[in-house]
Amino acid sequence: MMPLTIRVQVPGSTSNLGAGFDALGLAVDLPLQVVFHFEVASTRVLAARGEGAHEISQLEDHLILHAFQRACEELRQAAPAVGLEINNSIPLKRGLGSSGAAIVAGLLAASVYFDNALSQQQLLKLANELEGHPENAAASLLGGLTVNGVQNEEVLSARFAPPGNWKAACFVPELEIATEDARRVLPASLSRAHAIGNLQSAAMMVAAFAKQNPALLEFAARDYLHQPFRKVLIPGFDDILMAAMRAGGYGAFLSGSGSTMLAIAEEARAEGVSRAMAKAAQSHGLSGRPMMLSFAQQGAVCEVTT
Fold it and tell me: Is the pTM of this model over 0.90?
């Protein structure tokens, strides 16, 4: 019996974590909730609420639908008509994984509709194909910290559970930054010294989570590949990260391609860290909101009604 509805919940994510460019993804407790209704005559968005509600209500170039239809194509199945009911908590174009979560929601719903026809590996491969990098979708699908690589179009992903008392202290600017715009400012090459520095930092970030050792995070958050070039897009970038560290953050970095800035902090200090970041941003005329988030231990989940 084919499903009448499929309810999908997918966490957002932060990525890179400093030096882990296109490699490290970390799920955050910002859920994208989508109900796929199949008793409809034509494909449409039935309702859209939350962050970016107007944008995600538009049928044209809808990423959830595109991913759903791409999965059906992969399975050589005709895509059924579907009505989407969306409740989104992930700010759009802020480096918190809204695109990755949308892609995972569409792919997973199609897989479940056709009796879980896609393996985890196939889902990761399709998500990487659609987004162009694997780490956000992997974190949203699997939860926790994911370490990712791509070889011959196949995604390799390893998962670590983040410490329960580590939180994400964020400042989310009103400023939107599209990933493609943020990639245009990156250099074509790096010096050997900077390449070595990034390798050391990315490895140390993984070690910090594996050992649950916050003392490693400040070193681990160093980056020479993208943040020095992307920071020109965000007024007061250096001062905001410095404010996070002075307020007790363990390590601070640009979340994905921005514009969100994120510090890892112990739970007792996280709210103060995010407020310090907001205050520093305000002094540079950068409006936005502080936000304190848990890291999502659980990845995407589905509930089916037949």
Answer: yes
Give the rounded distance of the alpha carbon of 136 from its chain centre: 4
Contact 65/79 with Cβ under 8 angstroms?
no
**Backbone region of residue 95 per phi and psi (left: phi > 0; alpha: psi in -120 to 50; beta: other values):** left
The Cβ-side half-sphere exposure at 204, using a 13 Å CA radius, reads: 19
Tell me the sheet residues that pair with 159: 146
Gap between the Cα atoms of 172 and 165, Å rounded: 22
Mean pLDDT of 87-115: 97
For 166-294, the fitting CATH number among 3.40.630.30, 3.40.50.800, 2.30.22.10, 3.30.70.890 is 3.30.70.890
- Whether the predicted pLDDT of 2 surpasses 90: no
**Segment 103-107 mean pLDDT:** 98
* CATH tag, 5-161+295-305: 3.30.230.10
| Res. 304: pLDDT tops 80 | yes
Share of the chain above pLDDT 90, in %: 94
